Amino acid sequence: MKRLFSYQNMLDHSSVLSGKERSIVSLSQRFYFVTVMLATAFMVGSVADPALAGEPVLQEEESDVIRLPPVTSHRILVQDVVGEHAKDGRVYVVDADAGKLLGMVQAAYNANVVQDPGGKAFYVAETVWSRGNRGDRADLLPAYDPQTLTITNDEVLPGRALITPKKNDLSISNDGKNIYVFSMVPTSAVYVVESISHKVAQTVDVPGCSLTYPWGNSGFTSICADGGLVNVSLSGNHATAEHTTPFFDPEKDAVFEHSPTRRPDGRTWFISYSGLVYPASLSANTKIEAAWSLQEAAGMKRAPAAEAPFVKTWRPGGWQLSALHYASGHLFVLMHMGTFWTHKQAGTEVWELEVDTHRLLRRIRLPHPSTMVGVTQDARPLMFTTDKAGAFCIWDATTGKFLRQIPHLGEDLYFTVALGE
């Protein structure tokens, strides 16, 4: 408006202006008044129009819980230890038919996971500290609803084995009533947790032995440092332990802790670093059969053990290096070309073998080395592998054909858990 006043002042003193100059000033004033009035009208109109002046109405958010479909044979739990920041461990819930991630639950430092045989729940054994990396330690066994992924019970354990996750750190009886938690607090022991009451029913000391290989509804076996086993029979709140004689030499040719067990009848196939397979029938009176060779099943010479450590040949290796399809008795083993002490090396092939006849059925070449192999337990089984980038690779276990993958599902995929396994 300052400029308007200056024009008005000029008109007030128009006597000093020529006629032509007064016409220019008068025209300029009219133009300026018209411009100001239009602008003012626009602003007034804008304010008066609620459609233009009002704040946008935001839609109110409503929280909800999505229920997943019931558990199926091809809905898989995948353990990711996230090695570079291991306190951020996870368990992924994957639809293997669709190649789709359905959900995820947290699984803190070096956790383990096991699933109820009927898919009613799954359990994660984990450890946390009150101040992040220090303070009071809490060992937990949360039970998860498999459809909402919510915690239904959060049992506090007396302790557990705080070591790199292995499938047999945490296992479950065939009827799902007993959960076995391997502990090293302060010495080797197994906590028997009742899944119904969510309470530790008893603690079974297993000095010099570790892990749990469940058989039937009332017992488990642990593997011992002398090359033997201890069989634990449970009856109410009473446990009876019986030791076997050693069947392998842990100094010359140890067996992998990740050897597969068929839980309903306790049949287990212990695989050694050199590639020997020791069939065992686990029970209160475990029986161990003569060993056979993976390499001989493939028409090769039996691989030497620690007595000839530099001989290069096909050998088993990886992390979860083997999986068993219960009904067919087909054993899937990760194999690589290497010397004796390469038992942690990723497999470049999966060998499918028949455990009853010791016959090699198929050699599946992998596009990328894998430290993990898993398999489902249905009539049309799927097989799973991974790669260095954390892809979740899905195969037809009947034909050995690659089907699909979930690229970079996680950081460090260690093992899978399938329904009924």
From TrEMBL:
Keywords for the protein's UniProt record, in alphabetical order: Electron transport, Oxidoreductase, Periplasm, Signal, Transport
Signal sequence, start to end: none
Entry's transmembrane regions: none
UniProt xrefs under SUPFAM superfamilies: YVTN repeat-like/Quinoprotein amine dehydrogenase
Subcellular location: Periplasm
Predominant localisation class: periplasm
Family, as annotated: Belongs to the aromatic amine dehydrogenase heavy chain family.
Protein name: Amine dehydrogenase
Organism: Acetobacter fallax
